Hints:
By secondary structure, this protein is an alpha/beta fold. Helices cover 37% and strands 14% of the residues.
Amino acid sequence: MRLGIDLDGVVADFSGGWIRLYNEEFGTDIPVEAVDSWGAPPLLTHFRHMGEFWRWCSNVNSRSLFWHLDTFPDALPTLHDLDRAGHDIVILTTKPHWAVSDTFEWIGRQGIPTTEVHILDKKWTVSCDIYLDDAPHQLRDLPAHRPDRVVCRFVRPWNRETAQTVTIESWEDFARFVATSSAADPNV
C-alpha cells in the first residue's frame, strides 16, 4: 500500500525541536508539554505572531529549524518495518520555501526509507491508500477530498477526534493498523 506520511509532529519532533533551540538561544525554560494548540509559539515566546516565529525558524544556527529536528521514538524503526513489508512510504510535508533543501537533507540524514517526497500544502492531491497526519487542517481536508481513502490522526494536543479519521496513539498502533488493513486488502 501507499502510505502518505507527514513529517512534522509525526516523524519529526517539531515542537520539541523548536522549544529546545528557543530555550538555548533565549535562556528560557519552556516545557514541551506547554504546546497544546496549533500556532502555540506566539503564546509561549516573545514572538508577537507566527510571521516572527517563522523568520526566526528560517535561520537557527545558520540552518533552518527543520534541519535540527530529532525523530520521535519508534518512528524510524516502524517506517523501516513498513518498507520491508512492501509498503511504499510517501512523504507528504508542508514547508516554507527556505526549508526545502534542509528538509531533503534531513530525510537523507535520518535514513527515512522513501523514494517519494512531496512538499506541498494540498496533500490530498497525492494519491495514497492510508494517510497519517497531525495537522488539524489536513485532518479536515484529506477526508473531504479523499473520502474513499483512510486518514489516520496521529494524536497530538492540537488535534481532535473526528468521525472521518482513525485515531492513532503511537507508531506501534499505526503499524498494527496497516498490517490489519493489508490483510484485508486483496491488492497487497
